[in-house]
Amino acid sequence: MFTLTINGNTPAELYGKMEALLNTKFSAPAQPNVNPTPAAAVPAISDTSFPQPSTAAPAVPAAAAVPTAPTQDTTAQTPVTPAANPGIPVTGVPVAAAPTYTLDQLARAGATLAQAGKTEQAMTLLAKYGVQSVSQLKPEQYGMFATELRALGAQI
């Protein structure tokens, strides 16, 4: 593999240098190539003419490297969907189970809020759930209550 860099100050100069390089006849190397490239891998150049450069600002940087292989066009690929491939099983995204809390954890978190001077906010939260103390909460309410305690600043 080799890299070829062609420098020029204008697009016209770059095109001229590239055209001159492509029109040059090279002789065989003095020593045989130790690692020859298969003929199928070398692209054939059928037309050495180049379009005339425009007077617009160049879109090519001052030093351009000549690509060694064509790039693959990925715009025509379609996404794989289960409907298009009925043999592929459809699985959901794994979701972690919601954390569970104990009555003791909730009570300690509420106590830390009270110690931080947020007793009024803790009492308002209890009233929102229709209870006067944490011990009156239903187990299915523990998760949401813990989330709201956390929003008030409790460590739980």
Molecular structure report:
This protein has 156 residues and is mainly alpha-helical. Among the domains are: 1-25 and 36-68, no CATH class; 103-152. The chain contains four helices and two strands.
**Main beta sheet:** 2 strands, antiparallel
N-to-C terminal Cα separation, in Å? 60 Å
Number of helices: 4
| Spatial extent as radius of gyration | 36 Å
What do the pLDDT scores average to?
Answer: 75
Strand content: under 5%
Structural class, please? Answer: mainly alpha
Helicity range: 25-40%
Number of strands: 2
Shape: elongated
What is the spatial order of strands in the main beta sheet?
1-2
The topology string of helices and strands comes to EHEHHH
Runs in which pLDDT lies below 50 for 5 or more consecutive residues are none
Structural key phrases:
two-stranded antiparallel sheet, 4 helices, elongated, mainly alpha, 156 residues
Q: What's a concise summary of this model?
A:
The protein is mainly alpha-helical and 156 residues long. The chain has helices spanning 11-22, 103-115, 119-128, 142-152; strands spanning 5-7, 63-65.
Layout of secondary structure:
Blueprint: E1 5-7, H1 11-22, E2 63-65, H2 103-115, H3 119-128, H4 142-152
Antiparallel strand pairs: 1-2
Helix pairs in contact: 2-3, 2-4
